[in-house]
Amino acid sequence: MERRPRVKPVDAPCLPVPVRSRPPGPAMPLSRRAFLATATAAASLPLTERLHALRLARPVAAGGAAPSRPCVVASDNGLRGVRRAYDLLVRGDDTLDAAIAGVNIQELDPEDQSVGLGGLPNAEGVVQLDASCMHGPTRRAGAVACLEDIATPSLVAKAVMDYTDHVMLVGRDAKRFALQMGFREQPLLTEKSRQDWLRWRARLNPSDFWLDHDEDVEIRSTTGTINMNAVNAAGDLSSVTTTSGMAYKIPGRVGDSPIVGAGQYCDNTVGAAGSTGRGEANIKVCGGFLTVEFMRQGLAPRQAALRTLERMLAMTEARLLDAKGRPRFDIQVYALNKAGEHGAASMYEGSQYAVCDAGGARLEPCAFLFRRSEYPAGPVPVQRARGR
Ligand code: GLY
Question: Out of 63, 137, 242, 334, which could bridge 302 as a Cys pair, Cβ 3.0 to 4.6 Å?
Fold first, then answer.
């Protein structure tokens, strides 16, 4: 991945700096001295105000790729998917059909432990899936939550959209609906994910009656998800997000992915956006909707994604922040506008996103609010959760 210039002033948050897809045109006319003066002054402000001040001071152009349609944008696990979706768009397929065909690759891949078949289970060892989608041209949406035994919740969400007057079905009734629609029931817990769950359970409580594993194994955990957004040559848009949710979650927990307006959102006149990572942070700011609204106000996709992350940070409860106001979680926002410009941002440095346009399928770096080295040490203090 491309290295970023280190322009960070002492103790100030990191600056999102240009990604490879910097647009044509002159950079903002701001001297290095003026920039550093602004950054130093900003360092004395509260964190969110610092971020705002630094974002305004950033000596780079507003960000986002040169427009190109068709274009498909996804979380980094969607690299194969954006290629498939793009090919379908080129041959004239519908934008939502294309995006769903893209995420189906991960849903049906037993090696991907964050989505569909092979997803890590809840605390009881049951794989529960969430998904939602929006179809720009018809302004329709569909969603399912806590769906069990069906590998492609994205397609069930679309079936809710296509065949009912509702937007969301949940739990065993979502499964009954899926079976009635002809979806195939199958076990989703792979041996690999079952073993990970057993290890997690054995390590959970030192005073329970499960024996710890002798070997020093890493307990795999994920809030992984796949979000995909597509625009075709005519400028029609769609979006979809699908996930097995937070690994080892409390049974019944529903994240942001099936919440229309949080996990994904699409407005055919503006653009589409979605998120991966800690869903609890995204739900509180309706991140998909908010990002599209920022684009409606004129922000480039990458700037819109950064603004949404700032709002998430401002809405984060104290127990999830360290003494310097840095969050103990990561989360990503992906955005695509009607013109085919795209961008993405992550709370912490190091994330990438997948994109496919006339330039081919590739990973691009996400902008970010904090350097990876700033990630707070130590576990999330869950025991202090109540009342904070
Ligand atoms: N973003 C996925 C989840 O939190 O479930």
Answer: 63
